[in-house]
Amino acid sequence: PGATDSTTFTASYAVTQADLDAGRFDNTATATGYGPTGAPVSDDDDATVPAVQNASILLSKDAATANYNALGDILTYTLTVTNTGNVTLTNVTVTDPVATVVGGPLASLAPGATDSTTFTASYAVTQADLDAGQFVNTATATGYDPNSMPVSDDDDATVPAVQTASISLAKDATTSNYDAVGDMLTYTLTLTNTGNVTLTNV
């Protein structure tokens, strides 16, 4: 009686993904001994070990279109999301303020998992994009950790324009002929922008 033993028994447990997602591991052990009459006596005790949760996500946005050279050209993108943390992410979405994103949301994404097929994006080129010489835009991936807290990551992609600046002039006489000194010859001058970018100070 009164004796204590802290060396004979040890216990170990391998953490599961569910334990990481739960944020802690609670476990109860039971000690049992037998008195002189053979009747058992027992006692329980539990221990809680907290998890260090690290929720993070990585987005990779890549242009599948090498360049563009015309109004209305469609730029397409692949969007790859990766769970770079140690807890499961849920309701994973990708948004883009300019391009149209198709696909998702992903119900869940396990730690270390990568998805490159659910989300795609597309964008129709405008004249302003041709004049700018390139189109740069950013997408955002968002997921929620087991505590319903959001994590997000941004990535951008740049697609260059193939700019072609050219102009055409057509000069036509509106006077059919002349037969005297001082006759006035008149002409029409027609300018055409034959390129794909806006011309200024013409």
Give the strand line-up of the largest sheet.
Answer: 3-4-8-6
**How much of the sequence is in beta strands?**
over 45%
Mean pLDDT across all amino acids: 97
Share of residues in helices: under 10%
Radius of gyration based on Cα positions? 36 Å
For the record, give the distance between the C-alpha atoms at the N and C termini, rounded to a whole number: 106 Å
Helix-strand topology string? HEEEEEEEEHEEEE
Q: Quick one: overall form?
A: rod-shaped
Written description of the protein model:
The chain has 202 residues and is mainly β. Helices cover 6% and strands 50% of the residues. It contains two helices and twelve strands. It has helices at residues 17-22, 127-132, and strands at residues 24-34, 40-50, 57-63, 74-83, 89-95, 100-102, 106-109, 114-124, 134-144, 150-160, 167-173, 187-193. A four-stranded antiparallel beta sheet has the order 3-4-8-6, with no helix packed on it. Strands 7-5-9-10 form a four-stranded antiparallel beta sheet. A two-stranded antiparallel ribbon has the order 1-2. β9 and β10 (150-160) form a beta hairpin. The radius of gyration is 36 Å and the shape is rod-shaped. The chain starts with 16 loop residues before the first helix and ends in a 9-residue tail after the last strand. The model has no long low-confidence stretch (mean pLDDT 97).
Q: What's the topology here?
A:
Layout: H1 17-22, E1 24-34, E2 40-50, E3 57-63, E4 74-83, E5 89-95, E6 100-102, E7 106-109, E8 114-124, H2 127-132, E9 134-144, E10 150-160, E11 167-173, E12 187-193
Antiparallel strand pairs: 1-2, 3-4, 4-8, 5-7, 5-9, 6-8, 9-10, 11-12
